[in-house]
């Protein structure tokens, strides 16, 4: 029997959201991670926080904050996890679908312990493809450049039907066929590798995550996914 992959979840938050967004993560999808860590500039009772030490606590300094969090998480748990999932505190994750997705990959192929190890090494050795001289910057873009430069191959997260599993927005923005989110967010066209659509065909039946999910919405999703039973359907 194949052993369940060990999952480390690293969630970025701020002191302003410890008792709202972070707690909602803690009480919903976060409890299904094998290890759940938060990155913030302050500690908080009930949360396992890696304390960042950047010049300023705001969105512009996420490159510094998330880099520090990743390095410390790897230092503490290297050898104790197979895969690392990095998320914001307004992300909702279906952990079972995430584990199903990564179980089809060798842990040397994606954002796994070995990839994180190469990434951390690139920070420490100050490789030219991975600029850590600045605290400010778009962390997702910089992380992608560092991962690619360190030899990590980017995978295709779509399912067998070509439907995506990871989403920039909450379910309502994706599922409403009359929503114009794709047209309102021009940056999506510049950064998205694949086209996507809205409506019921927007999303894979094995969807992994949605972004911009409010704390209230997290509890709604938790109920719909894990408690609600539709009667009379085989």
TrEMBL record:
Name the chain's protein. Answer: N-acetylgalactosaminide beta-1,3-galactosyltransferase
**PANTHER family registered for this protein in UniProt:** BETA1,3-GALACTOSYLTRANSFERASE, GLYCOPROTEIN-N-ACETYLGALACTOSAMINE 3-BETA-GALACTOSYLTRANSFERASE 1-RELATED
**EC identifiers of the protein:** 2.4.1.122
Task: State the family it belongs to.
Answer: Belongs to the glycosyltransferase 31 family. Beta3-Gal-T subfamily.
From the Swiss-Prot or TrEMBL record, state where the protein is found: Membrane
A GO cellular component annotated for this chain's UniProt record is: membrane
Major enzyme class: transferase
GO molecular function annotations of the record: glycoprotein-N-acetylgalactosamine 3-beta-galactosyltransferase activity; nucleotide binding
Annotated membrane topology is:
Single-pass type II membrane protein
Q: InterPro entries, alphabetically?
A: C1GALT1/C1GALT1_chp1 (IPR026050), Fringe-like_glycosylTrfase (IPR003378)
Keywords for the protein's UniProt record, in alphabetical order: Glycosyltransferase, Membrane, Nucleotide-binding, Signal-anchor, Transferase, Transmembrane, Transmembrane helix
Pathway(s) this gene product operates in, as recorded in its UniProt entry:
Protein modification; protein glycosylation
Q: Report domain Fringe-like glycosyltransferase positions.
A: 8-127
Tell me the superkingdom of the source.
Answer: Eukaryota
